Amino acid sequence: MLITQPNMIYSHAMPRFLPSLSALAAFEAAAKYSSFTKAAEELNLTQSGVSRQVSALEDFLGVRLFDRFGPRLVLTAAGRSYSAALTTSLNDLEAATNDVVRGFKANYAMQIGVQAGLANQWFVSLMKKFLLQAPEIKVNIQAISQNADTDLAALDVAILRGHGSWQDMTSYHLMDETVIAVAAPELIDPNQSYKPADIERFTLIQSSHRPDMWKRWLRELGEHYQGEISGPRFSQTSMVISAALTGMGLALVPYIMVQEMIAQGRLVALIDLPVSIGYKYFVVHPENKSSSKDVLRFRNWLLRETQQLRRDVAPEPRKPT
Hints:
By secondary structure, the chain is α/β, with parallel strands linked by helices. The chain contains 10 helices and 11 strands.
């Protein structure tokens, strides 16, 4: 006698109709570069290996994904559609994998944005204190550009340099930005007293996104310098500092980023006087994050940590004699 139980459905699980992950990765890379050769470089495979993977994928699907014109690849209509869907799926799979590895979803972490140079030279070491005090708060720290208006919407909180006004953001003053002229020890004679005009004796390392920095510094020191400001330019402050460390020349950089290097003797100040040139650092967060307990806890902690820095306002520059 055959006995069955009511409301129970018996079925045989069907295997998923899916190609291999390696074939999908090869196709995605080839679609991105329109080249098997460049895809192979990204995947650390041979060109022929990528080509075979894509051909196997086309055989599996029964559809041509590329039109081939010698070394150049052109996606077919089916290839374009498949590529878009595949990239989205692989991104989701990668995100899920990262969530498992880190133990929490990325969007559960507080997103903190910091200018790259400030993060490397100051903020990362400071964050150790916060994480010890609040180990239950997950954070994701990312470098942002100084012109970060387009990045701010995706952040919970950020540290920015400016004048304190950003659209739809609430800002709190952390500290004034002061800058100092520094070079490697072999370039500056510790027994000599230097004046601002002595910069003409050095190669001047410059920041390409702050081309007026040297002129502002000279003006604040009361120096009407008429010489040319020229020298190698770098796109990031951290690169400017690295160039100074190699002995390339004299660099003008935020004091907070090199304070420890000066104390260690790795860099020497031309004039031992940090100078304010009009900018300040702020901790900012979107107005709609004002009720977030994690954001408020981080903001208030950072304001306490920088309290002394707000008091240590740069003294009035010494006028040249």
